[in-house]
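Re: weekly structure request thread

Next one in the queue (222 aa):
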Amino acid sequence: MTAAPLEWLDLAAWPRRGTFDFFRRFDKPYFSVCTRLDVAPLRRRLRDRPGAGINLAMHHVALRLANEQRPFRYRLDGEGVRVVPVVHGSMAVLRDDESLAFARIGYQRDFTAFVRDARQSIDEARAPERVLGLLDQDHDLMHFTTLPWVAFTSFEHARNWGRDDSVPKIAFGRITDDGVHQWLPMSVEVHHGLMDGLHVGRYVQGFEAALAEPDAWLALEA
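Done, posted below.
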């Protein structure tokens, strides 16, 4: 199969070129937004789908939105910005011995196929002989982590300050139930040179819409 040609953002024609140049010079050019999402409708619908848990469902929605919203596919590459054709996921996996590994979660629009392949990748990452499996050098990824023990209200990722890291990072927290809603904390961290609050806001609004109508997004009738 022939690889897709590399697509580069036309910086000269980009309306955000000035903003890009401004934030690119920052020592810390990243910003993070924390919010909470009502996952009650999604969890109710997932009861009919054994094996399709809330965690993978959230990863699926996150990747689908990232692939549909172009700024989430922008990646720094030298002095330019590359537009990756498809964004996949890197998921932190907790092993039985409490060590971490990373699993590459390939994006597929079909939810059933996505869950099947994601579970296989997670099982491989949990294997005792598997090395840590760092994936942070892959430009076509989003980085995911889940803290099911903490209903956090802020979040900051570990970073390597020695290089330009333009990979968006998502964190999910512990679900809390107030009797009506089931709130899941979510943190979205991005490079400010590549997008602004407007773009993150659209991403969060897309999440809210997806969770309000889970059948339409996750093809749960299939």
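The chain has six helices and ten strands. The two ends are 29 Å apart (CA to CA).
Next request, please.
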